[in-house]
Design goal:
Alpha-D-Glucose-1,6-Bisphosphate, Chain A, domain 4; 5-stranded antiparallel β-sheet; alpha+beta; 3 helices; about 180 residues
């Protein structure tokens, strides 16, 4: 019995000594993480499609596309700025999709509009952006769909293209 007790005491003493060794090294710091040392492979910030954070790097390999997101970055930024007054329900830079919620102007509270903006490619061209507008008018307590002039959608597309070109010129001047 005494040998068992002695053996148990020895094991407990050794275990507590080993456990205490790690506790007294308070000056040891964990390795610092460098955000540029991201592992390769699938993921949100790194992977086969590139590093998401590099999309906003001015020194990136953007060329005409203006970044490494799935669509032209100048068109993307211009589209976001152009519909910023409306509540945005979806914005997918890789797919080039911006969907807004209904917006009513204070000047016309009985009308509301919403927009779908599609950036269709990496080139900065007029056929790389498509805007679809929806309009409703209030009839009593319910909303009814109303016709939207195709010229209104084209005007928003032209606004986006003009802003995108200005952003590209500004970015090139900053380099």
């Amino acid at each position: 019995m005494n040998s068992r007790l002695l053996c148990l005491a020895t094991v407990l003493a050794a275990t507590s000594t080993l456990a205490a060794c790690g506790a007294f090294h308070g000056d040891t710091k964990p390795a610092e993480i460098n955000p540029t040392d991201m592992p390769k492979g699938p993921g949100l910030l790194s992977g086969e499609s590139g590093n998401l954070l590099d999309a906003f790097n001015k020194k990136g390999k953007g060329g005409e596309s203006g970044g490494t997101i799935g669509v032209n970055i100048y068109l993307w930024r211009a589209a976001l700025e152009s519909v910023a007054f409306m509540p945005i329900t979806q914005a997918d830079s890789n797919g080039g999709v911006i969907v807004t919620d209904w917006y009513s102007s204070p000047a016309a509270p009985n009308e509301r509009v919403r927009a779908n903006v599609l950036i269709l490619g990496k080139s900065l061209s007029s056929n790389a952006v498509k805007v679809t507008l929806f309009k409703q008018t209030r009839s009593g307590s319910s909303w009814a769909n109303a016709e939207v002039s195709p010229a209104t959608a084209r005007a928003l597309e032209d606004t986006i293209l003009t802003k995108a070109r200005a952003l590209k010129v500004q970015t090139m001047a900053d380099k």
